[in-house]
């Protein structure tokens, strides 16, 4: 009846996962979680200090990882980062395109530099990070690409048109790549996190502010934890999701219920 | 960062009670076997007692716990009775998988009222009243997981089975509405939309050669899914790892039906 016999859990033993922007927030949680599930993890970040801190947590828990420092807005740096991982571990099985930036800036105030910076990191950065791992995944006839988009791509967010636009682009690339790369058994999916209690949110709103917003705006009446996004990323990184591709999973406590 | 959940090695279902409708065959049976292997006790509901007992026997043989519940989900009074049987047995139902369904092809012009009604009675009324019967317990415990098995047919439709497509789309509507209604009690409601899955029924209908041919031609990943591919998603959505996901639909379709969000 079934070809797969891997019923105990979505383990990642023996897999190599690279997580961009793994120095903080959701990326950090994803890196730590995937290491706990058995993956060797490439901890990529623009900040060495942040990446080192994540790596230290992984190693303390007995996990294996490699710190990668690079600026995603520069395709050559992604290529260098990914080549380093392949040289060390021979493969990249999972890429989590998590790195991204956000800012509020009205359309009238938008200057070209702000616009370009947003798309350079969130779209171009993600594109060329992916390009850098595709060759190896094709050669091995398998791979998992997980793009972290946002509910902003689904319903829009006032005051950050370039952010919402960039995340919309991420969703469209997810769908296009899913079709392009399916012949090599490479699955491509997106995660759209909603309100997640990252350090950035705590700084911006304070815990009390976040709690208040949760009571009034989030059906489940709380923010999500970064590790909850990591659980979903872990599922999409594992063999358990081998027949899922081209999809976007929203994780937002019920705030955004749209589309299918 | 930090989290209250300390359950990182697997999406374990230890101690949970999972109620699965239509668990006597196909995807429902596979769901039952997988969640049992992850530690859940399973209420194996089916209209056919013999097939429900077979699923129970398979679970027992693997060292799991399950029992059979027999009845017709299209009858609300059966739904109520069956829910009571499950709650009497184990005192609770933590997760409900509304999986029971039927399929037939019937053109618009050939449709009779009886066919139309049967399709909606099983999928829509069946899921509705099974859920209604189990929600009070979930509310009382302030926790629950409801997983509706819809279909890619409910998203993008197929030809010649409009009543099936519409019934599955109705399930997506129930999913979204219930997610909002039940969120204050920490009850998550999500849907799974399986695409082409090689169930026994599909194998009987097309044969393996027919399946392979269609897969090559139409499915980006070039294969049918296995029932276990759906079961993995069911187990994830039944576990605490999906506690912040509600009101969503997860298509499992090998790259077919890339639409919507």
User: How far apart, in Å, are the first and last alpha carbons of chain A?
Assistant: 30 Å
Taken as a percent bin, the fraction of beta residues of chain B is 5-15%
Question: Taking Cα atoms only, what radius of gyration of chain B do you get, to the nearest Å?
Answer: 18 Å
**Oligomeric state of the chains present here:** heterodimer
Report on the structure:
- The complex is a heterodimer of chains A (260) and B (261).
- Chain A is 48% helix and 14% strand.
- By secondary structure, chain A is α/β, with parallel strands linked by helices.
- Chain A has a single domain, classed as NAD(P)-binding Rossmann-like Domain (Rossmann fold).
- In chain A, β2 (40-45), α2 and β3 form a beta-alpha-beta unit.
- The longest helix of chain A has 29 residues, at 112-140.
- Chain A is globular and about 45 Å long.
- Chain B is globular and about 45 Å long.
- Chain B is 48% helix and 15% strand.
- The two termini of chain B are 28 Å apart.
- With 261 residues, chain B is an alpha/beta fold.
- At the A-B interface, α1, α6, α8 and β7 of A face α1, α6, α8 and β7 of B.
What descriptive keywords fit this protein?
heterodimer, A: 260 residues, alpha/beta, Rossmann fold, disordered N terminus, B: alpha/beta, 7-stranded parallel sheet, 7 strands
Task: Please summarize what this structure is.
The complex is a heterodimer of chains A (260) and B (261). Chain A has 260 residues and is α/β, with parallel strands linked by helices.
């Amino acid at each position: 009846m079934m070809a797969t016999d891997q019923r105990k859990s979505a383990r990642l033993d023996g897999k190599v996962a690279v997580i961009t922007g793994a120095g903080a927030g959701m990326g950090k949680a994803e890196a730590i979680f995937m290491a706990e599930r058995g993956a060797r993890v490439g901890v990529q970040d623009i900040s060495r200090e942040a990446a080192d801190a994540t790596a230290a947590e992984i190693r303390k828990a007995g996990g294996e990882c490699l710190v990668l420092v690079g600026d995603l807005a520069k395709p050559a740096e992604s290529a260098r980062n990914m080549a380093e991982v392949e040289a060390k571990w021979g493969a990249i099985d999972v890429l989590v395109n998590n790195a991204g930036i956000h800012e509020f800036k009205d359309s009238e105030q938008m200057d070209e530099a702000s616009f370009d910076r947003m798309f350079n990191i969130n779209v171009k950065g993600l594109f060329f990070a992916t390009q850098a791992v595709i060759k190896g995944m094709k050669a091995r006839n398998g791979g998992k690409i997980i793009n972290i988009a946002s509910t902003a791509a689904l319903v829009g967010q006032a005051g950050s048109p370039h952010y919402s636009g960039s995340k919309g682009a991420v969703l469209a690339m997810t769908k296009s790549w899913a079709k392009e790369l399916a012949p090599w058994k490479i699955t491509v999916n997106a995660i759209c996190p909603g309100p997640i209690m990252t350090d950035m949110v705590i700084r911006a709103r304070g815990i009390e502010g976040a709690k208040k917003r949760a009571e009034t705006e989030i059906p489940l009446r709380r923010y999500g934890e970064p590790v909850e996004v990591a659980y979903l990323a872990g599922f999409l990184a594992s063999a358990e999701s081998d027949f899922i591709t081209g999809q976007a999973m929203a994780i937002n406590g019920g705030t955004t219920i749209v589309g299918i | 960062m930090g989290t209250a959940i300390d359950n990182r090695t697997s999406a374990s279902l230890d101690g949970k009670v999972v109620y699965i409708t239509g668990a006597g065959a196909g995807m429902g049976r596979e769901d039952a076997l997988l969640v049992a292997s992850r530690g859940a006790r399973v209420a194996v509901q089916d209209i056919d007692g013999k097939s429900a007992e077979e699923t129970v026997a398979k679970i027992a043989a693997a060292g799991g716990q399950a029992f059979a519940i027999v009845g017709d989900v299209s009858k609300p009074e059966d739904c109520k009775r069956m829910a009571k049987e499950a709650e009497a047995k184990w005192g609770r139902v933590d997760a409900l998988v509304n999986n029971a369904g039927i399929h037939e092809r019937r053109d618009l012009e050939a449709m009779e009222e009886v066919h139309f009604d049967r399709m909606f009675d099983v999928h829509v009324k069946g899921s509705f009243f099974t859920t209604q019967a189990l929600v009070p317990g979930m509310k009382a415990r302030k926790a629950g997981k409801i997983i509706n098995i819809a279909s890619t047919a409910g998203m993008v439709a197929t030809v010649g089975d409009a009543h099936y497509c519409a019934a599955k789309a109705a399930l997506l509507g129930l999913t979204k509405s219930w997610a909002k209604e039940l969120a204050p009690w920490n009850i998550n409601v999500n849907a799974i939309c399986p695409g082409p899955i090689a169930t026994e029924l599909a194998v009987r209908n097309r044969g393996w050669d027919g399946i392979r041919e269609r897969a090559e031609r139409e499915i980006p990943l070039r294969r049918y899914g296995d029932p276990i591919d759906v079961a993995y998603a069911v187990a994830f959505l039944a576990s605490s790892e999906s506690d912040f996901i509600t009101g969503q639909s997860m298509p499992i379709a090998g790259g077919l039906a890339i639409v919507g969000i």
